[in-house]
Protein 1
Amino acid sequence: MTDQTRRPTVERPAPGRVWYVAAVLVALAGFALAGYRVYSNIGDLMSGLDQVVVPGQADLALEPGRYTIFHEYQSTVDGRIYSGTDVSGLLVRIVPAGGGEPLTLDQPGATSSYELGGRAGRSVLAFEVPKAGEYKLVAVYPEGEEKPQAVLAVGRGMTGRILTLVFSALVIVFLSVAAAALIAVITYRRRRAAIAPR
């Protein structure tokens, strides 16, 4: 005779509803972390833009590469608030500080805009810097034409940096929601299996 010993079945207790709460907390933590990442990086993002109150001029230290000039229709400089959408007729030049031919200004390849940290702007011009150095931005209206002061912002890679920041925040949200959903599904299945008739 062959004796067959049956091992006793060990039943796992049904997971408590607290795991559903844990899933919600994981999702909320992801949203909070994504929001914190965006908020904490806004300052660094905006500091990459040199602001120039126009009509006027400013000295810029530029590295080689393609730059974009934005019109900040909502801006703050030295505690003063600037708001306005009309800079039509504004003449902009960028010349080497030591003298030489002005850089060529053209239209941006694609229109880009931002609205971050109480500042909002849209791209209006673009230019290529051939070599690192000091440059002077000069912006004036035609003689006899008077308009309110406005703010231009000069920077490079702004759109790419914004997209990178937004994408990283979305990844955090996606992973947290996926983890929360996984916890909820596993909890549901184990609870259902535990109460199913044997």
Protein 2
Amino acid sequence: MKKQRGIALITVLMILALMVTIATTMTGRMTASLLRTEGLSFSQKVYWYGQASVEFSRMILNNDMADSSVVSLDQLWATPDMVFPVDEGTIAGRLKDYRSCFNVNAIALADKDDVRALPVRQFQALLEALDVEQYTAEVVAESTRDWIDKNDTVDGSQGAEDRIYEARGVAHLTANNLMVDISELRSVQGVSRAVFEHIKPYLCALPVATQLINVNTVAVDQAEILYALFKPEFNFSIEDFEQLLEDRPTSGWATTNEFLESPMFIDQTIPEDIKSQLSVTSEFFHLYGVAEFDDRLMALKLLFKIEDKKATTVRFQYAGIE
């Protein structure tokens, strides 16, 4: 009898242990499910806050473009680091005119028969103005041309095509196409991490091969961009362009002809190939947006294109926190 009671007790204890194990497992799974649901809820809120920054920026651009024939730094879109409080978080956004930076893809327009074509010389001039050593600047400029152009021929003495990149530790080929993002420049021969981080703020990679610099939105501390456009043909200094931008009208120049009537250009004959690179308006704007909710962050980058005075999305990607 005692033996049977002992067996029964052991059986009860085993069943109890099994029930505790099942209950613990179910509790763990339920907790994980609740946390996952909570995490998804937070992620959804952060996502929609991020989308809010996109739509708010779009609205600002649409309003600015609707009633102006020029793009200038006194418009609402140019407000630095806009931050707006929302329920349990914030939405922040920063718009930049992507016609105020040097479009590396414009090098694709370089005449294939001209080893030292103007776009290549302008890019090299910009690099040198940013204190990149002359030899490195030449290598980067010519290698960028080879990276973008459609052929497999090294066009300049310092260029690089597929055979150079195939010999690397991580072998790859040239794109033979326009760069999709300026980060792609990091793969080009001669562009070290230090060089890239230094020159990146002055550059962009637009989905077109045209070089148009909006003289109304180039920052005073980035006067090297305008300097580089003129450097191959003129002996202006960076300081000349800094002063020119300091004296820029509050609402910008109304036309490029008005810009070229500035005192520093008096008695100068500006070639058409340089004139054609100047503008007082823009069709590309870059948004860097950050949404924060309950200490969770989401950053995004987006390229707007203005068509018929309306901002449309050209490119979107999630990004790291800057």
Protein 3
Amino acid sequence: MEAKKYFESMTELFGVVPRQEHYACMIDLLSRAGKINEATELVNTMPFQANTSVWGALLGAARIHKNVELGQCAAEMLLVLEPEKSGTHVLLANICTSAGMWGNVAKMRKLMKDGQVKKEPGMSWIEVRDQVHTFIVGDRSHSRSDEVYAKFDELFNLLYKAGYVPMVEMDLHDVEQGEKQRLLRYHSEKLTVAFALIATRPGAPIRVKKNLRVRVDCHTALKFICKIVSREIIVRDVNRFHHFKDGSCSCGDYW
């Protein structure tokens, strides 16, 4: 692995002692490559206490590789360091959902319903002609909301025809199935992209910012949308940039 060679050369060739940030990057790279045992071994042997970057990388790897045991361990450590972060509960619930562990998912839903875990509302925004336009899930406060919803409904029909299937099982809201579908359908980044399609010139790249991590369903939908409308869509979420083009994302579906 080329990255590992560079990491080791820091000390062996250049006399540079890796800092915690370097270890976090290496653990992230090993996790991305599916080398979970090597990643966890590095966590256990590095000369630092693992921070949120390290445990976040392992939690992301657990989701990608459907490793429930690793996900639970990483989530527990993250919740010790950042107990107020609802995103950790959501990501762990997604891992349990993928593994069919419905009892654990129900526990997460109960925590959120009882108010023990406060979920920060997702918010996305875009700047068009020097004005910032902000959307939240199901938002209808924008002056052009009727146009935005009509545009996304039009897109939604095209998404279905292209093979997109909403991931309703990933939604943790304790509401009826129909309401879950509605909430999932109108997530903030989807509304923001729909607005961009009616407010910017044809073919122009769409640049969106989001205050939380992009959800799996929205990530999948945006891959379909960029191909359907022949536009590049760049989303900056709380973790990284996602560059959607021709039906794929620059993150390689790992984030």
